[in-house]
Amino acid sequence: MTDRAAELAAEYTRIRPRLVGVAYSLVGTLAEAQDVVSDCWLRLTAADAHDPVRDVEAWSVVAVARRAVDVLRSARVQREEYVGPWLPEPLVGVAADPAEKVTLDDTVSFALMVVLETLTPAERTAWVLHEVFGMPFPEIAVVVGRSPAAVRQLAVRARAHVAAGAPRVDVETAEHRRAVDAFVRAVGQGDLRGLVAVLDPDVLLTTDGGGMLGVARRPVLGADRVGRFLVGVRRKMAAGERIAPLTVNGGPGFAVLTGNATRFVCAFTLHDGMVKRVDFVVAPAKLPRELEV
After folding, report:
1. b or e along 113-146 (b: 16 or more beta carbons within 10 Å of the residue's beta carbon)?
2. Considering only 86-95, 119-128, 154-163, 166-175, which range has the smallest mean pLDDT?
3. What is the residue range of 265's domain?
4. Residue limits of the RNA polymerase sigma-70 region domain (predicted)?
């Protein structure tokens, strides 16, 4: 390996978590995000061989974002035909390998990732790159192929959609921790009264089963219905299965495990000490096979 090749590889490894974060925020699945970043490594080496890239990080962020937008536009057609709700792939806990960690702002909760799915690819790109990764509008314009003024308008529209659709997330406090503990404890015990006490009256629950039989394909709305759904989930757990609290996209959640094998992952969002949203990811393709929890 030449000195230049080694230098390029070291720099790309350093910025890889940020690049995966950009791609994941746009496409919503870690596997696709990693494919995008790997593909752009090949593009970087080819471009650098022709004309040395001076700012590897800036070049790579734009390249990854452009490729991720292409993937997102292609995926939109498939997601419209998806059986039941489509949820992003959950980022569970913290990766053991620093190179596999995803760099995301603390504000990019799982609930926010769900809301981003309602934006057009251009709006999502403008919001993510500007609000999360601090990219200026002229650079975003290169990614989406529009003028900086048009990109600014995209970001304004996206910000309004996000503000209207994403529940505000509680800052980590003692009250927040008590609510999280109470929710997980009530789920684990199948305690309907305890669940209803911590659920917002208008709580929404969605389940992404990827077409699996026996998985709810419509959202569940309201504290009583969501509480009964969760109690039903607890009752259906087989002997040897356990509930393991963990973080999902940096927020509260839990997984149901058989040994270390993952059956499903649940993310939930709190506001004012109440659970405002519950999201179950059951689709095997979106779950880590095993978790050390």
Report:
1. bbbbbebebbbbbbbbbbbbbebebebbbebbeb
2. 166-175
3. 174-286
4. 12-76
